[in-house]
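Limitations
The structure tokens in this dataset are predictions for the assembled complex, not deposited experimental models. Users should treat interface geometry with appropriate caution, especially where small molecules or nucleic acid strands are included. An illustrative entry is reproduced here so readers can see what is and is not provided.
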Amino acid sequence: MNRSSRFIMRCMMAAALSGGLWATAASGAEKGKTPQAPAPYFSLPTTESASPRTDGFIGRWLMLEPIEKPNRSNTVFTDSYLREAFYNEYFPGQLTAWPKAGETVKVDGKKLKWHSLDSNLFNVKLFRFATGLEKPYYGVLFWVVTAIDCEEDIPDVRMSVGSNSASMWWVDGEEAVILSGDRRMVADDCLSRRLTLKKGRNIIRGAIINGPGMSDFCLRFLHEDGTPVTNFTISNL
Amino acid sequence: MNKILHCAAALALAAPGIATAQVGEPYIHDPSTIMKCDGKYYTFGTGGGGLISEDGYHWHGGGVRPGRGAAPDVVKIGDRYLVAYSATGGGLGGSHSGKVLTMWNKTLDPNSPDFEYTEPIEVAHSEDNEDCDAIDPGLLLDPTDGRLWLCYGTYFGFIRLIELDPATGARKEGNEPIDIAIDCEATDLIYRDGWYYLLGTHGTCCDGPNSTYNIVVGRSRNVTGPYEDNMGRDMLEGGGKMVAAAGHRRTGAGHFGRYIEDEGVEKMSCHFESDFDMGGRSVLAVLPLLWKNDWPVAGEPFVEDTYEIESERRGYALELAVDFVRMEMERHPFWIPVTEPLEPLADQTLDDVKGTWPEGNIDVRIGDYMFRPHQKWTITAVPDAGGYLGSPYYKITIEGTERALAATADKELTTVEHYSGADEQLWRIEQLTDGTYRIMPKTIPGCDEELVLVSVGDSTPSLGKFDMNSDNSKWNFRKR
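Predicted assembly:
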């Protein structure tokens, strides 16, 4: 069996296991169904701002419907590939804009909507976000954004990320962490260099790319001693 | 330094696979427990005098201990140093009339205006017809209650224990010696986690390359014994579990001393009767002191070579943050029978990948070990760059290149394309008491803190405070 046939076989098996969502994803997108919070993984935000979990993980995110970026394998995600993939402009302001829930962007002629969701878990199940919306979920690129508000500068913290598969993360437009390779999501896998969460608003932005398989991420900030940073709020943009 | 020895030491250090030893003039017999005084290291030996080191690695003569005699030991009590030594009657086939004496000094630096020994006082003695030879004292200031103990003796009969007054260094009024071991010498007492340990030397002394001297240990819940080995055999019956023996072209390990550098960072001093790479002379040795199941054992001297540097946190390997270069091969389904001879796959080589690496500095990360060129680190001693207790600094470079691991001013890590010898490119490598290692830059630009290589995440290395209780601070050097 060559690599192509093995990939096709795995996709078929995955589609069968997930109730045939792969087959219905495209049609669901075409129907333009009203987005719902995919239970039990997500809830729709009911408050203006949220707190991080006690373990520091950030659950509230604006998430863009997945951009199709076909890859038959996750092993291609080298640092060079990721920089090229993530710094390619898919929509205007992808690294600078502050999107609002419900706004749409156009990528390759397709309208993709931003959704504001609260994860019910410590991690954010991108795969379930995509399947819940009946969107493509393999060979995709996710953009996520959140804003955290600090009452004072919080110096010498590190952004701590785990993602499946590769991803890149920015704080106020500055590249903070890259997770390359065929990755599984592991809490506290890759950390940024020391940085300061400034008083006021800090925009956290991430791009996660995935070929076949599960896709999710978890993100928190850690102090120098490894304890989680929790003294901030998370706002809807 | 003697030019020939200098060259020999240099050759030994330059050759891959050769363990580094103390350098300079580390010639001594029966070294006392190493003491640090005003930034310098001191040890005293049989026959008077002693060794001094500015950095703990390069040693030279110049230590001053009057009284000559044999096998001294030193303990710091308050702001003074108590030195114990013995006046021997000859030992072995000679007289066994010995004396143990103690004296104080405010400093061990002979150039200090405060350097002045008090008059020695006798604390123990033996007569010719006794089953004891009162030499080779070892001192223990009990950290649990502040009481001061002294053990002494040789192969000629018993090792004995007496109590001293920590204020005066004199024998406690009315104290009677207790027999705690037999048929060993050069004993020392240490305490750790509820156990008292009696270390003694067995084997043949003073026979150069043929000396079978070796250091053994027994332990007890009470300072007065009984001291038993790992088989429950009393040291009064000759028991003892091996701590240090011959190896690495050195024979005759003897006269144990413990030095606690930091929590989890311990070292032991001893002499080797004969260092084959130093003309067969008797030399000072400083080795990592490991603890396994609450038993002390000497660690191995670090051997220069090429290694995987494995994080104890996750088991991933320190690597350059470069693109992973896949190895392509024709795939053979496992269910198809093998009909042709199998050819081994060649390793990926530096030439296969170095063209994909950027110029200039490259960051480091931690990743799955795949025995690839960007994960193979060559550790090379830099003996001219100073040292620390027991070892030289090392450079850590990617095998086959001059790309060197370096500390940065923001307390992070990078690799520089060309090793320059700058202090931030030099690394202190110390084996910890659990057998793992800590790795510490000699300096961090613009930073006075002592920080070590840490895993802040499974895949992210950085510099941080050493914490023996965290696997983030620990690394392994593996060959696989």
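Some entries come with short summary sentences. For this one: Chain A touches chain B through 23 residues (CB under 8 Å).
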